[in-house]
Amino acid sequence: MKGALLVAGTTSDAGKSVLVAGLCRMFARRGVRVAPFKAQNMSNNSVVTLDGGEIGRAQALQARACGLEPSVRFNPILLKPGSDRRSQLVVRGEAIGTVGARDYFQHRQRLRALVADELAALRAEFDVVICEGAGSPAEINLRATDLANMGLARASGLPVLVVGDIDRGGVLAHLFGTVAIMEPEDQRLISGFVVNKFRGDVALLRPGLDRLTELTGRPTLGVIPFAEELWLDAEDSLATVADAAVGRSGPPRGSEWLSVAAIRLPRVSNSTDVEALACEPGVSVRWVTDPSRLTGADLVVIPGSKSTVDDLAWLRRKGFAAALRTRAVHGGPILGICGGYQMLGTRIHDTVESAAGTVDGLGLLDLEIEFAEPKVLRHSVATTRTAAGAPSRTEGPITAHGYEIHHGRVRASGDPHWLDVEGQHEGSVRGAVWGTHLHGVLESDAFRRDWLATVAAAAGRTGFVVAEDVSVADVRGAQLDLMADLVEYHLDVDGIERLLAAGAPADLPILTTGVS
Protein backbone atom coordinates (compact mmCIF):
# COMPACT_ATOMS: atom_id res chain seq x y z
CA MET A 1 0.00 0.00 0.00
CA LYS A 2 1.27 3.44 -0.93
CA GLY A 3 -0.44 6.81 -0.64
CA ALA A 4 -1.49 9.82 1.42
CA LEU A 5 -4.69 11.50 2.51
CA LEU A 6 -5.78 14.62 4.36
CA VAL A 7 -8.03 14.65 7.43
CA ALA A 8 -9.90 17.96 7.58
CA GLY A 9 -12.46 19.09 10.15
CA THR A 10 -15.70 21.04 10.08
CA THR A 11 -14.30 23.11 12.95
CA SER A 12 -11.26 23.40 15.15
CA ASP A 13 -11.19 20.60 17.75
CA ALA A 14 -13.50 18.42 15.66
CA GLY A 15 -11.21 15.45 16.23
CA LYS A 16 -8.64 15.77 13.43
CA SER A 17 -5.61 15.23 15.67
CA VAL A 18 -7.10 12.22 17.41
CA LEU A 19 -8.26 10.64 14.15
CA VAL A 20 -4.83 11.11 12.55
CA ALA A 21 -3.13 9.62 15.60
CA GLY A 22 -5.52 6.68 15.55
CA LEU A 23 -4.96 6.03 11.83
CA CYS A 24 -1.20 6.28 12.29
CA ARG A 25 -1.22 3.85 15.20
CA MET A 26 -3.48 1.41 13.38
CA PHE A 27 -1.29 1.33 10.27
CA ALA A 28 1.89 1.10 12.35
CA ARG A 29 0.48 -1.91 14.21
CA ARG A 30 -0.10 -3.55 10.82
CA GLY A 31 3.53 -3.07 9.88
CA VAL A 32 2.94 -0.17 7.49
CA ARG A 33 5.65 2.50 7.34
CA VAL A 34 3.51 5.51 8.17
CA ALA A 35 4.24 9.15 9.06
CA PRO A 36 2.08 12.13 10.13
CA PHE A 37 2.13 15.58 8.54
CA LYS A 38 0.58 18.93 9.42
CA ALA A 39 1.70 21.67 7.07
CA GLN A 40 0.77 24.49 9.42
CA ASN A 41 -0.28 24.39 13.03
CA MET A 42 -1.39 27.20 15.31
CA SER A 43 -0.78 26.23 18.91
CA ASN A 44 1.18 27.23 21.99
CA ASN A 45 1.50 23.57 22.98
CA SER A 46 4.79 22.48 21.45
CA VAL A 47 7.71 20.15 22.01
CA VAL A 48 11.41 20.18 21.18
CA THR A 49 12.43 17.57 18.64
CA LEU A 50 15.64 15.57 18.58
CA ASP A 51 16.69 17.51 15.49
CA GLY A 52 16.68 20.67 17.58
CA GLY A 53 13.45 22.29 16.45
CA GLU A 54 9.98 23.01 17.75
CA ILE A 55 6.71 21.45 16.53
CA GLY A 56 3.12 21.20 17.70
CA ARG A 57 2.41 18.79 20.53
CA ALA A 58 -0.20 16.94 18.48
CA GLN A 59 2.32 16.09 15.77
CA ALA A 60 4.74 14.79 18.37
CA LEU A 61 2.01 12.46 19.64
CA GLN A 62 1.19 11.37 16.09
CA ALA A 63 4.85 10.61 15.46
CA ARG A 64 4.94 8.41 18.54
CA ALA A 65 1.80 6.68 17.28
CA CYS A 66 3.85 5.77 14.18
CA GLY A 67 6.78 4.56 16.29
CA LEU A 68 8.84 7.58 15.20
CA GLU A 69 10.69 10.28 17.07
CA PRO A 70 9.13 13.75 16.67
CA SER A 71 10.74 15.74 13.85
CA VAL A 72 10.33 19.19 12.32
CA ARG A 73 9.50 17.37 9.07
CA PHE A 74 6.09 16.48 10.47
CA ASN A 75 5.09 20.09 11.20
CA PRO A 76 7.19 22.48 9.11
CA ILE A 77 5.20 25.62 10.02
CA LEU A 78 4.08 26.49 13.55
CA LEU A 79 2.33 29.70 14.57
CA LYS A 80 2.44 30.48 18.31
CA PRO A 81 -0.08 33.20 19.19
CA GLY A 82 1.30 35.89 21.50
CA SER A 83 -1.78 38.12 21.21
CA ASP A 84 -5.05 38.22 19.32
CA ARG A 85 -3.33 39.77 16.31
CA ARG A 86 0.28 38.53 16.22
CA SER A 87 2.00 35.16 16.37
CA GLN A 88 5.53 33.90 16.45
CA LEU A 89 6.36 32.19 13.15
CA VAL A 90 8.33 28.97 13.49
CA VAL A 91 9.61 27.47 10.23
CA ARG A 92 11.22 24.03 10.21
CA GLY A 93 11.50 24.26 13.97
CA GLU A 94 13.17 27.67 14.15
CA ALA A 95 11.49 30.93 15.21
CA ILE A 96 12.09 33.47 12.43
CA GLY A 97 9.99 36.39 13.64
CA THR A 98 6.57 37.65 14.67
CA VAL A 99 3.79 38.12 12.13
CA GLY A 100 0.24 39.40 11.91
CA ALA A 101 -2.43 38.01 9.62
CA ARG A 102 -1.73 40.51 6.86
CA ASP A 103 2.08 40.33 6.79
CA TYR A 104 1.95 36.53 7.08
CA PHE A 105 0.46 36.52 3.60
CA GLN A 106 3.80 37.82 2.31
CA HIS A 107 5.44 34.56 3.40
CA ARG A 108 2.83 32.28 1.85
CA GLN A 109 4.37 31.61 -1.55
CA ARG A 110 7.71 30.60 -0.08
CA LEU A 111 6.03 28.55 2.63
CA ARG A 112 3.76 26.83 0.12
CA ALA A 113 6.80 25.54 -1.77
CA LEU A 114 8.45 24.47 1.49
CA VAL A 115 5.35 22.51 2.54
CA ALA A 116 5.04 20.80 -0.85
CA ASP A 117 8.70 19.75 -0.80
CA GLU A 118 8.46 18.39 2.75
CA LEU A 119 5.36 16.36 2.00
CA ALA A 120 6.86 15.00 -1.23
CA ALA A 121 9.97 13.88 0.67
CA LEU A 122 7.88 12.10 3.29
CA ARG A 123 5.78 10.37 0.63
CA ALA A 124 8.93 9.12 -1.03
CA GLU A 125 10.28 7.74 2.23
CA PHE A 126 7.14 6.26 3.81
CA ASP A 127 4.40 4.00 2.51
CA VAL A 128 1.60 6.11 3.95
CA VAL A 129 1.43 9.74 5.08
CA ILE A 130 -1.62 10.86 7.06
CA CYS A 131 -1.98 14.65 6.85
CA GLU A 132 -3.96 16.82 9.24
CA GLY A 133 -5.67 20.00 8.15
CA ALA A 134 -5.89 23.20 10.19
CA GLY A 135 -9.13 24.71 11.44
CA SER A 136 -11.81 24.28 8.79
CA PRO A 137 -11.32 23.88 5.02
CA ALA A 138 -14.53 25.87 4.48
CA GLU A 139 -13.01 29.23 5.46
CA ILE A 140 -13.35 30.59 1.93
CA ASN A 141 -12.16 34.04 3.01
CA LEU A 142 -8.71 32.43 3.50
CA ARG A 143 -8.79 30.01 0.57
CA ALA A 144 -6.50 32.00 -1.73
CA THR A 145 -3.65 31.78 0.74
CA ASP A 146 -4.44 28.37 2.27
CA LEU A 147 -1.57 25.90 2.45
CA ALA A 148 -2.79 23.45 5.10
CA ASN A 149 -6.25 22.37 3.91
CA MET A 150 -7.56 22.36 0.34
CA GLY A 151 -4.53 24.28 -0.85
CA LEU A 152 -2.37 21.36 0.25
CA ALA A 153 -4.85 18.77 -1.02
CA ARG A 154 -5.05 20.39 -4.47
CA ALA A 155 -1.29 20.85 -4.77
CA SER A 156 -0.54 17.25 -3.78
CA GLY A 157 -3.60 15.43 -5.13
CA LEU A 158 -4.80 14.25 -1.72
CA PRO A 159 -8.21 12.67 -1.08
CA VAL A 160 -9.85 14.39 1.87
CA LEU A 161 -11.85 13.01 4.79
CA VAL A 162 -13.94 15.55 6.67
CA VAL A 163 -14.54 14.83 10.36
CA GLY A 164 -17.29 16.50 12.39
CA ASP A 165 -17.91 16.53 16.15
CA ILE A 166 -21.51 15.47 16.77
CA ASP A 167 -21.15 16.37 20.45
CA ARG A 168 -21.35 20.05 19.39
CA GLY A 169 -24.62 19.55 17.52
CA GLY A 170 -25.51 20.23 13.91
CA VAL A 171 -22.93 17.83 12.52
CA LEU A 172 -24.91 16.83 9.40
CA ALA A 173 -25.34 20.47 8.40
CA HIS A 174 -21.65 21.10 9.13
CA LEU A 175 -20.58 18.22 6.89
CA PHE A 176 -22.93 19.17 4.06
CA GLY A 177 -22.09 22.86 4.29
CA THR A 178 -18.36 22.24 4.30
CA VAL A 179 -18.63 20.62 0.89
CA ALA A 180 -21.30 22.92 -0.51
CA ILE A 181 -19.46 26.16 0.12
CA MET A 182 -16.30 25.02 -1.67
CA GLU A 183 -15.36 25.74 -5.26
CA PRO A 184 -15.76 22.76 -7.62
CA GLU A 185 -12.08 21.80 -7.84
CA ASP A 186 -11.91 21.52 -4.05
CA GLN A 187 -15.18 19.58 -3.87
CA ARG A 188 -13.71 16.94 -6.20
CA LEU A 189 -11.25 15.91 -3.47
CA ILE A 190 -13.77 15.55 -0.60
CA SER A 191 -14.07 11.76 -0.54
CA GLY A 192 -15.97 10.93 2.63
CA PHE A 193 -17.06 11.88 6.11
CA VAL A 194 -16.34 10.71 9.66
CA VAL A 195 -18.60 11.49 12.61
CA ASN A 196 -16.77 11.86 15.92
CA LYS A 197 -17.84 11.61 19.58
CA PHE A 198 -21.18 9.89 18.99
CA ARG A 199 -23.21 8.82 22.03
CA GLY A 200 -26.10 6.40 21.72
CA ASP A 201 -27.53 4.05 19.11
CA VAL A 202 -25.95 4.51 15.66
CA ALA A 203 -29.16 3.15 14.10
CA LEU A 204 -30.89 6.40 15.07
CA LEU A 205 -28.25 8.37 13.18
CA ARG A 206 -28.27 6.16 10.10
CA PRO A 207 -31.18 7.85 8.25
CA GLY A 208 -29.37 11.17 8.52
CA LEU A 209 -26.15 9.69 7.20
CA ASP A 210 -27.99 8.04 4.32
CA ARG A 211 -29.59 11.35 3.41
CA LEU A 212 -26.18 13.06 3.63
CA THR A 213 -24.87 10.55 1.09
CA GLU A 214 -27.85 11.21 -1.19
CA LEU A 215 -27.27 14.96 -1.02
CA THR A 216 -23.50 14.92 -1.47
CA GLY A 217 -22.69 11.64 -3.21
CA ARG A 218 -20.13 10.90 -0.52
CA PRO A 219 -20.19 8.11 2.06
CA THR A 220 -19.75 8.35 5.79
CA LEU A 221 -16.79 6.07 6.43
CA GLY A 222 -17.36 5.71 10.13
CA VAL A 223 -18.97 6.88 13.35
CA ILE A 224 -16.51 7.03 16.23
CA PRO A 225 -18.12 6.71 19.67
CA PHE A 226 -17.42 9.16 22.46
CA ALA A 227 -14.52 7.82 24.54
CA GLU A 228 -14.22 9.47 27.92
CA GLU A 229 -10.83 7.82 28.45
CA LEU A 230 -9.19 9.93 25.72
CA TRP A 231 -7.69 13.03 27.30
CA LEU A 232 -3.89 12.90 27.39
CA ASP A 233 -1.98 15.28 25.10
CA ALA A 234 -5.03 17.34 24.20
CA GLU A 235 -3.65 20.10 22.02
CA ASP A 236 -5.66 23.20 22.94
CA SER A 237 -9.09 22.32 24.25
CA LEU A 238 -8.21 21.96 27.94
CA ALA A 239 -6.49 25.32 27.95
CA THR A 240 -9.63 27.09 26.75
CA VAL A 241 -12.11 25.82 29.32
CA ALA A 242 -12.26 27.47 32.71
CA ASP A 243 -12.86 25.24 35.75
CA ALA A 244 -12.44 22.12 33.61
CA ALA A 245 -11.13 18.93 35.11
CA VAL A 246 -7.94 17.52 33.61
CA GLY A 247 -7.90 13.80 33.03
CA ARG A 248 -9.81 11.00 34.67
CA SER A 249 -7.99 10.38 37.95
CA GLY A 250 -8.55 7.07 39.63
CA PRO A 251 -9.49 6.91 43.32
CA PRO A 252 -6.77 7.63 45.88
CA ARG A 253 -4.59 4.84 47.20
CA GLY A 254 -4.78 6.35 50.66
CA SER A 255 -7.52 8.13 52.60
CA GLU A 256 -7.12 11.59 51.05
CA TRP A 257 -7.10 13.26 47.65
CA LEU A 258 -4.53 15.82 46.53
CA SER A 259 -6.15 18.83 44.85
CA VAL A 260 -4.28 20.78 42.14
CA ALA A 261 -5.39 24.15 40.72
CA ALA A 262 -3.69 25.08 37.44
CA ILE A 263 -4.07 28.74 36.51
CA ARG A 264 -5.37 29.07 32.96
CA LEU A 265 -3.38 32.04 31.73
CA PRO A 266 -4.73 33.92 28.67
CA ARG A 267 -1.69 32.88 26.61
CA VAL A 268 -0.94 29.60 28.32
CA SER A 269 1.61 27.42 26.59
CA ASN A 270 2.36 23.74 27.07
CA SER A 271 -0.77 23.34 29.15
CA THR A 272 -0.21 19.60 28.82
CA ASP A 273 2.50 19.78 31.51
CA VAL A 274 -0.11 19.26 34.23
CA GLU A 275 -1.48 16.13 32.59
CA ALA A 276 1.22 13.99 34.19
CA LEU A 277 -0.19 14.94 37.60
CA ALA A 278 -3.67 13.92 36.47
CA CYS A 279 -2.37 10.43 35.66
CA GLU A 280 -1.83 9.86 39.39
CA PRO A 281 -4.56 8.11 41.38
CA GLY A 282 -6.05 10.47 43.93
CA VAL A 283 -4.73 13.65 42.26
CA SER A 284 -7.50 15.98 41.09
CA VAL A 285 -6.39 18.67 38.60
CA ARG A 286 -8.54 21.59 37.46
CA TRP A 287 -8.00 24.70 35.32
CA VAL A 288 -9.02 27.88 37.14
CA THR A 289 -9.45 31.51 36.07
CA ASP A 290 -10.59 33.02 39.37
CA PRO A 291 -8.41 33.35 42.49
CA SER A 292 -11.27 32.18 44.69
CA ARG A 293 -10.77 28.74 43.14
CA LEU A 294 -7.35 28.50 44.78
CA THR A 295 -9.03 28.11 48.17
CA GLY A 296 -8.70 24.52 49.28
CA ALA A 297 -6.17 23.60 46.60
CA ASP A 298 -3.19 21.64 47.91
CA LEU A 299 -0.97 22.72 45.00
CA VAL A 300 -1.17 25.67 42.61
CA VAL A 301 0.55 25.44 39.23
CA ILE A 302 1.46 28.47 37.12
CA PRO A 303 2.12 26.97 33.69
CA GLY A 304 4.10 28.29 30.75
CA SER A 305 3.10 31.38 28.81
CA LYS A 306 3.69 32.69 25.30
CA SER A 307 3.39 36.25 26.71
CA THR A 308 4.99 36.12 30.14
CA VAL A 309 4.86 39.83 30.99
CA ASP A 310 1.30 40.27 29.71
CA ASP A 311 0.07 37.20 31.59
CA LEU A 312 1.85 38.42 34.72
CA ALA A 313 -0.13 41.67 34.43
CA TRP A 314 -3.29 39.57 34.07
CA LEU A 315 -2.46 37.72 37.29
CA ARG A 316 -2.33 41.06 39.06
CA ARG A 317 -5.56 42.39 37.54
CA LYS A 318 -7.45 39.22 38.43
CA GLY A 319 -6.21 39.14 42.04
CA PHE A 320 -4.06 36.02 41.65
CA ALA A 321 -0.85 37.84 42.61
CA ALA A 322 -2.15 38.76 46.08
CA ALA A 323 -3.64 35.29 46.58
CA LEU A 324 -0.35 33.62 45.64
CA ARG A 325 1.65 35.83 48.01
CA THR A 326 -0.73 34.99 50.87
CA ARG A 327 -0.48 31.33 49.99
CA ALA A 328 3.33 31.41 50.01
CA VAL A 329 3.38 33.09 53.43
CA HIS A 330 1.37 30.20 54.84
CA GLY A 331 3.52 27.52 53.20
CA GLY A 332 1.03 26.52 50.52
CA PRO A 333 2.78 24.62 47.69
CA ILE A 334 3.23 26.50 44.39
CA LEU A 335 4.90 25.30 41.18
CA GLY A 336 5.93 27.56 38.30
CA ILE A 337 6.93 26.06 34.94
CA CYS A 338 8.85 28.08 32.33
CA GLY A 339 6.92 31.37 32.04
CA GLY A 340 5.26 30.60 35.37
CA TYR A 341 8.71 30.14 36.91
CA GLN A 342 9.84 33.49 35.52
CA MET A 343 6.78 35.21 37.01
CA LEU A 344 7.68 33.94 40.48
CA GLY A 345 10.91 35.98 40.54
CA THR A 346 11.65 39.55 41.60
CA ARG A 347 12.20 41.14 38.18
CA ILE A 348 11.87 40.38 34.49
CA HIS A 349 13.87 42.34 31.90
CA ASP A 350 12.09 41.90 28.58
CA THR A 351 13.00 43.75 25.40
CA VAL A 352 12.32 40.70 23.22
CA GLU A 353 8.84 39.25 23.73
CA SER A 354 6.80 42.17 25.08
CA ALA A 355 9.33 45.04 24.77
CA ALA A 356 8.11 46.12 28.22
CA GLY A 357 11.59 46.64 29.66
CA THR A 358 11.93 45.89 33.37
CA VAL A 359 8.86 44.77 35.31
CA ASP A 360 8.43 43.46 38.84
CA GLY A 361 7.69 39.78 39.32
CA LEU A 362 5.63 38.19 42.07
CA GLY A 363 8.64 38.16 44.40
CA LEU A 364 8.13 34.62 45.65
CA LEU A 365 11.60 33.55 44.48
CA ASP A 366 14.90 35.45 44.58
CA LEU A 367 15.25 35.39 40.81
CA GLU A 368 15.98 37.83 37.99
CA ILE A 369 15.14 36.91 34.41
CA GLU A 370 16.42 38.55 31.24
CA PHE A 371 14.90 37.82 27.85
CA ALA A 372 17.32 37.40 24.96
CA GLU A 373 17.71 35.94 21.47
CA PRO A 374 17.92 33.26 20.28
CA LYS A 375 15.20 31.16 21.86
CA VAL A 376 16.52 28.29 23.97
CA LEU A 377 15.42 24.97 22.45
CA ARG A 378 16.92 21.83 23.93
CA HIS A 379 16.32 18.52 25.62
CA SER A 380 17.69 18.29 29.14
CA VAL A 381 18.47 15.51 31.56
CA ALA A 382 18.24 16.75 35.12
CA THR A 383 19.40 15.08 38.31
CA THR A 384 18.89 15.80 41.97
CA ARG A 385 19.31 13.96 45.26
CA THR A 386 16.03 15.41 46.44
CA ALA A 387 13.36 16.41 44.01
CA ALA A 388 11.86 18.88 46.45
CA GLY A 389 14.47 20.37 48.78
CA ALA A 390 13.63 17.87 51.51
CA PRO A 391 14.73 14.36 52.45
CA SER A 392 14.08 12.09 49.49
CA ARG A 393 12.20 8.80 49.53
CA THR A 394 14.70 7.52 46.95
CA GLU A 395 18.29 6.52 47.61
CA GLY A 396 20.78 8.24 45.32
CA PRO A 397 20.16 10.79 42.56
CA ILE A 398 16.78 11.13 40.89
CA THR A 399 16.82 11.62 37.14
CA ALA A 400 14.24 13.59 35.20
CA HIS A 401 13.93 14.31 31.48
CA GLY A 402 12.49 17.52 30.07
CA TYR A 403 12.80 20.09 27.34
CA GLU A 404 13.23 23.86 27.25
CA ILE A 405 11.47 26.45 25.05
CA HIS A 406 12.11 29.99 26.29
CA HIS A 407 13.73 33.35 25.69
CA GLY A 408 14.22 34.07 29.39
CA ARG A 409 17.64 33.50 30.95
CA VAL A 410 18.41 33.46 34.66
CA ARG A 411 20.44 36.61 35.33
CA ALA A 412 20.67 36.05 39.10
CA SER A 413 19.26 33.60 41.65
CA GLY A 414 19.66 33.64 45.41
CA ASP A 415 17.61 30.54 46.23
CA PRO A 416 18.78 26.93 46.39
CA HIS A 417 18.63 25.29 42.99
CA TRP A 418 16.15 22.52 42.37
CA LEU A 419 17.97 20.52 39.71
CA ASP A 420 21.35 19.99 38.05
CA VAL A 421 21.49 19.96 34.24
CA GLU A 422 24.89 19.06 32.78
CA GLY A 423 26.63 20.44 35.85
CA GLN A 424 24.64 23.69 35.77
CA HIS A 425 22.08 24.75 38.33
CA GLU A 426 18.48 24.74 37.07
CA GLY A 427 15.31 25.90 38.75
CA SER A 428 14.73 27.26 42.23
CA VAL A 429 13.12 26.23 45.48
CA ARG A 430 12.17 28.35 48.47
CA GLY A 431 10.10 26.63 51.13
CA ALA A 432 7.12 25.14 49.30
CA VAL A 433 7.61 27.25 46.15
CA TRP A 434 9.31 25.51 43.22
CA GLY A 435 10.17 26.69 39.74
CA THR A 436 11.82 25.26 36.64
CA HIS A 437 12.25 26.04 32.95
CA LEU A 438 11.84 22.35 32.09
CA HIS A 439 8.65 21.29 30.38
CA GLY A 440 7.69 17.63 30.64
CA VAL A 441 9.75 17.07 33.78
CA LEU A 442 6.73 15.69 35.66
CA GLU A 443 6.47 12.85 33.14
CA SER A 444 9.56 11.29 34.77
CA ASP A 445 7.82 8.86 37.10
CA ALA A 446 10.32 8.57 39.99
CA PHE A 447 10.86 12.32 40.07
CA ARG A 448 7.13 13.05 40.05
CA ARG A 449 6.42 10.55 42.85
CA ASP A 450 9.17 11.88 45.06
CA TRP A 451 8.08 15.48 44.57
CA LEU A 452 4.38 14.72 45.07
CA ALA A 453 5.14 13.10 48.40
CA THR A 454 6.84 16.33 49.51
CA VAL A 455 3.93 18.43 48.20
CA ALA A 456 1.45 16.29 50.12
CA ALA A 457 3.49 16.66 53.31
CA ALA A 458 3.72 20.44 52.87
CA ALA A 459 -0.05 20.59 52.28
CA GLY A 460 -0.76 18.50 55.37
CA ARG A 461 -2.29 15.66 53.37
CA THR A 462 -0.92 12.88 55.55
CA GLY A 463 -3.53 10.47 54.21
CA PHE A 464 -2.43 10.88 50.58
CA VAL A 465 -0.44 7.91 49.30
CA VAL A 466 1.71 8.21 46.17
CA ALA A 467 1.14 5.34 43.75
CA GLU A 468 4.26 3.40 42.85
CA ASP A 469 2.98 1.78 39.65
CA VAL A 470 1.94 4.70 37.42
CA SER A 471 3.86 5.25 34.19
CA VAL A 472 2.91 8.29 32.09
CA ALA A 473 4.52 6.65 29.06
CA ASP A 474 2.33 3.57 29.55
CA VAL A 475 -0.79 5.71 29.94
CA ARG A 476 0.07 7.55 26.74
CA GLY A 477 0.70 4.27 24.91
CA ALA A 478 -2.62 2.86 26.10
CA GLN A 479 -4.43 5.94 24.82
CA LEU A 480 -2.77 5.64 21.42
CA ASP A 481 -3.85 2.01 21.26
CA LEU A 482 -7.38 3.01 22.24
CA MET A 483 -7.42 5.55 19.39
CA ALA A 484 -6.27 2.83 16.99
CA ASP A 485 -8.91 0.40 18.29
CA LEU A 486 -11.65 2.99 17.74
CA VAL A 487 -10.46 3.54 14.17
CA GLU A 488 -10.14 -0.17 13.43
CA TYR A 489 -13.52 -1.13 14.85
CA HIS A 490 -15.66 1.84 13.76
CA LEU A 491 -14.23 3.04 10.43
CA ASP A 492 -14.39 1.51 6.98
CA VAL A 493 -10.68 0.74 6.88
CA ASP A 494 -10.96 -0.94 3.47
CA GLY A 495 -12.50 2.25 2.12
CA ILE A 496 -9.69 4.34 3.57
CA GLU A 497 -7.09 2.02 2.06
CA ARG A 498 -8.78 2.41 -1.34
CA LEU A 499 -8.50 6.19 -1.03
CA LEU A 500 -4.82 5.88 -0.15
CA ALA A 501 -4.15 3.63 -3.11
CA ALA A 502 -6.30 5.31 -5.78
CA GLY A 503 -6.98 8.85 -4.56
CA ALA A 504 -10.32 10.62 -4.66
CA PRO A 505 -12.96 8.90 -6.82
CA ALA A 506 -13.27 10.47 -10.26
CA ASP A 507 -17.08 10.55 -10.25
CA LEU A 508 -17.73 12.65 -7.13
CA PRO A 509 -20.61 15.05 -7.84
CA ILE A 510 -20.30 18.82 -7.57
CA LEU A 511 -22.92 20.51 -5.41
CA THR A 512 -24.49 23.37 -7.32
CA THR A 513 -24.69 25.48 -4.18
CA GLY A 514 -20.91 25.63 -4.16
CA VAL A 515 -18.83 28.65 -5.02
CA SER A 516 -18.41 29.06 -8.79
TrEMBL record:
Keywords: Cobalamin biosynthesis, Glutamine amidotransferase. Pfam families: CbiA (PF01656), GATase_3 (PF07685). Residues 6-231 form the CobQ/CobB/MinD/ParA nucleotide binding domain. The active site is at 338 (nucleophile), 439. Pathway: Cofactor biosynthesis; adenosylcobalamin biosynthesis. InterPro entries: Class_I_gatase-like, CobQ/CobB/MinD/ParA_Nub-bd_dom, CobQ_GATase1, CobQ_N, CobQ_synth, GATase_3, P-loop_NTPase. Residues 260-446 form the CobB/CobQ-like glutamine amidotransferase domain. Gene3D superfamilies: 3.40.50.880, P-loop containing nucleotide triphosphate hydrolases. Belongs to the CobB/CobQ family. CobQ subfamily. Catalyzes amidations at positions B, D, E, and G on adenosylcobyrinic A,C-diamide. NH(2) groups are provided by glutamine, and one molecule of ATP is hydrogenolyzed for each amidation. PANTHER family: COBYRIC ACID SYNTHASE, DETHIOBIOTIN SYNTHETASE. HAMAP family: CobQ (MF_00028). This is Cobyric acid synthase. The gene is cobQ.
